[in-house]
Design goal:
The chain is α+β, with helices and mostly antiparallel strands. The protein has one domain. It has 4 helices and 5 strands. The strands form 2 sheets. It has a 3-stranded antiparallel β-sheet. Strands 3-4 form a two-stranded antiparallel sheet. The N and C termini lie far apart (31 Å). The mean pLDDT is 92.
Length: 92
């Protein structure tokens, strides 16, 4: 991914983070869906996913399955500040 920043309508230009679709939508309805992250150091924030996606990750046995899991998470690009808000909401 070449783009390392995003223009957020709430927070302006920020570094990016990837959230699974469930975490991204949790910001809209303020529901807590759990929070897991893996920092590979290439973006503004680590990739993050919910409990539901984590349960599916635990069943992954190979690279091909991991790629399918990643695609199924339907990751959304959010700004770092929105990512931080999702983490705060979902680690409670």
């Amino acid at each position: 991914m070449n783009q390392k920043t995003v223009a957020c309508s709430l927070h302006g230009t920020q570094k990016i983070g990837l959230l699974c679709t469930h975490l991204a939508h949790s910001l809209l309805d303020q529901s807590s869906v759990g929070f897991h992250e893996y920092n590979d150091g290439d973006l503004g924030r680590p990739d993050a996913w919910c409990h539901e996606c984590d349960a599916k990750l635990q069943k992954v046995t190979g690279d091909s399955e991991q790629e399918q899991w990643f695609l199924a998470c339907d990751y959304k690009i959010l700004c770092a500040s929105c990512w931080d808000e999702a983490k705060e909401l979902n680690i409670r």
